[in-house]
Amino acid sequence: CAAAARPARCRAVAADERPADPSIPEGEDGALSGVAERPEADVVVIGSGIGGLCCAGLLARYNQDVLVLESHDRPGGAAHSFDIKGFNFDSGPSLFSGFQSRGPQANPLAQVLDALGESVPCASYDSWMVYVPEGQFLSRIGPTDFLKDLDAFVGADAVQEWKKLLDAVIPISAAAMALPPLSIRGDLGVLSTSAGRYAPSLLKSILQMGPQGALGATKLLRPFSEIVDSLGLKNPFVRNWIDLLCFLLAGVKSDGALSAEMVYMFAEWYKPGCSLEYPLEGSGAIIDALVRGIKKFGGRLALRSHVEKILIENGRAVGVKLQSGQIVRARKAVVSNASMWDTLDLLPPDAVPRSYQDKVKATPQCESFMHLHLGFDVENAREDLGIHHIVVNDWNKGVDADQNVVLISVPTVLGNGLAPPGKHVLHAYTPGTEPFSLWEGLDRKSAEYRRLKEERSEVMWKAVELALGPRFSREKCDVKLVGSPLTHKRFLRRNRGTYGPAIKAGEATFPGQATPIPQLFCCGDSTFPGIGVPAVAASGAIVANTLVSVSQHSELLDAVGI
């Protein structure tokens, strides 16, 4: 990419003109040389999202011969980054915490990085701007600062209800975090690596809660709304805020979010001394660290390697066939980091039990995304610009309504390594609320497609104008990229461009990592624990742990001090 930005008022680059093309045939850049020399591995991992990379990294750490096959020309899945004219953009997650955490209660991704001997340098901050129908305010994390925000912005009633929620939830978090994610595996060996190893600390946590806390802990696998309802919380803003946090983290509102996941988040964001973190080199730095860890321990990554079919022989998964026709054999297992729907499409129908097919097809999906990526001069924004902004247009529509919530990230306010000097990068998106049905069947080169992109991106433009202030001008942006659900589907290989399964706690559970086909496993947001960076990292770790012996697993836990 060029070192300097394009002149102002030049033609905007369309998102569908991004230089990264996942449809490029395999091997054109030599990325498959390792596969050509050795087209087999102990474990073949399909897809290099965070879940797949965490799985592969730990397998390599366990001295397994692991090969990751990625369809795109760069790793990372929904967390990959890309460059346009010297601007480095995130394609997905931008709100992170817990990178520096260590020990049994650390963030699952931090535990995997620790096991690989890798780290991600980050900048810390403690707030984001919120624009809601009642007005706008700077929301701060921590046990007391948010209470001050509520008191000033909403009132004493909201403060009392939030205190009541924290008083109930924080003690429960000890139980929710008592079993380190890295200790979990998908077989009976979990009785040794998790239950036996951490039973004393879990019991101690439960005893310290007292009767009321222990009662709350029984709801960890229930919808978070049950905890909220049991506390009698009725303040409209507090209820709406809880729904917003649940939806942003889990893809569903509080009546569908798993209590354990939300309790974990509250402990991360509202405990003393907590902070949010952003990788200094963008979200792509997380992917780079995981890839370094894989290669350090002898694992392999092949880009532009589109898997066309999972091979089944004698009822077992034994490898994959690439789009090029090449066969890659797996001696022990195949692990799919693709969504449950995309994984099903890779399997021969006659090899999959009808009940499993029906269950996958019946699983509800979250909707897709609209994306807006901008590169512009710092003078084109307010001087006190913060990194994160959340815009809610109408509480009455619900936080899961389309065109209602917009998230904005401007990471260059924390450091300018992601853009040319004097420039900002910005990523705005609607969080899994854009209906794919509006876009289905459209030709990406058609006038109708361009018209719909312009129409459906307007809500993001308006949110950006609100966040950046009166100095911002659309016409002065050096780079303008509008992405649709079709863009999301194309570059991320996601069925219908979906955010993931819309599985509601209390109604259904995320499936485990094993499948009805021996030697075929899944990881990522279609499996337990669910959607979100910590969850997918944990899912990848669970698969890796399951594929090695209990003694190897225990040795790793000892080595990383948990």
UniProtKB/TrEMBL annotation:
Residues 14-33 are annotated as: Disordered. GO terms for biological process: carotenoid metabolic process. SUPFAM superfamilies: FAD/NAD(P)-binding domain (SSF51905). Pfam families: Amino_oxidase (PF01593). Residues 50-546 form the Amine oxidase domain. Signal peptide: none annotated. GO terms for molecular function: flavin adenine dinucleotide binding; oxidoreductase activity. It comes from the Eukaryota. PANTHER family: FAD_NAD(P)-BINDING OXIDOREDUCTASE FAMILY PROTEIN, PTHR46313. This is Amine oxidase domain-containing protein. It comes from Oryza glaberrima.
